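Write out the bound-state structure for magnesium ion.
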Amino acid sequence: MARFQPPRGTKDLLGEGMRRHQQVVGFGCEAFRRYGFQQWATPIFEDTHVFARSLGETSDVVSKEMYTFEDRGGESVTLRPEGTAGVARALVSNSLTQALPQKIFYHGPMFRYERPQKGRFRQFHQIGAELIGAESAFRDAEVIAMARDFLVSLGLGDDLTLELNTLGDLASRKAWREALVAYFRQHKDSLSEDSKNRLEANPLRILDSKAEQDKRLLADAPAFDDFLNDESRKFWDDLREALTAFGVSFVENPRIVRGLDYYSHTVFEFVTDKLGSQGTVLAGGRYEGLVEEMGGPAVPCIGWAAGIERLASLIEAPAAEHSDVAILPMGDAALLKSASIALSLRNAGFSVSIETKGNMKKRMDRVVQSGASHAIFLGDDDLERDVVQLRSLATREQEEVAVDAVVHVLERVRAV
Ligand code: ATP
Ligand code: MG
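---
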């Protein structure tokens, strides 16, 4: 018979892996609550244009990583490679462009056809946030502070560095881009093959190149700083001032350009040296044209997304949840009685397991190992007198308790 494996680049989430994943999502949701963000869920597939247009035809994601296919009706659809485009599309589809700002978060699976390796999958998960209608650099700083709080709450404050850059406004970027193209054209022969292709289509991406020969050229490339116009320079100053006011520390890194086309002004990444070359765990920036691309008005936004797998691999493993109470019935009548005892305990909020497998000693060993706080023994003579034997696994003390009083007794213990 066939033995199936998960598809290449995907992973089953179970046991500790699932607990790590849930911990990341749980702390994320908690950070979002403190900043007043609300959850949205958009479809995991969209009309292909939603991504192709917004992320830029020359971006890595659109040019080689998208899961695009024709559905049975002949429509071209794409499994979402990221969350922002769908959120912007949903804003417009649901006529919310006049109800700004919208503070949104999401989490869920994303799909990119990449070469699988450590920290890089074909189905992975992101948790992210978008502030739609971000009127000033102050908002950028607040949304970055939210990311910082999230990462600190996961216990990663000391492992991560925030790297920050500005891409300026469109006019600044255009002037710089022209200077860059001119510079690289002069040195075309020294560029890597990849970068030669990027030269006309997307020269900013050369700055992101990992090829040594490109890196050598970058040292003398025209610096963006010289092309920032006054407005962009003020935005950049305001951002850094507001970040300091929010208590966020950062380092400036002019090499951060981000892979997608829609960013302007603020771009940032939280990075670690603990994950080898897949060291970026959370990344984002400001984008101003995306809502317009989706058929809405021009709305400035700031957002970020974190890779859940990368964060999950960095945190300490959360302990497994265990039942509070185990019931160990002896005999058929006791088994049926254990159903109603379990029901009333569960209704009172206790987590209950009914242990039926193996002899009493085996069951008891399992219960002690499970970390339960109490065991309830229930035999024929207990049934006759309508009592149970309640044992505290912490003190090893055992007492006889009337069936009707079990919930009450355990509630009293829980209260202290
Ligand atoms: P990279 O440079 O690593 O390819 P990216 O720029 O493509 O990253 P983004 O699109 O900014 O990544 O996505 C945000 C975050 O999502 C990344 O920082 C990373 O943590 C995570 N991520 C992106 N692609 C993958 C993937 N294929 N597998 C696992 N996590 C991923
Ligand atoms: Mg990528």
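---
Residues 60, 259 surround magnesium ion (ligand 2) (CB under 6 Å).
The longest strand covers residues 102-111.
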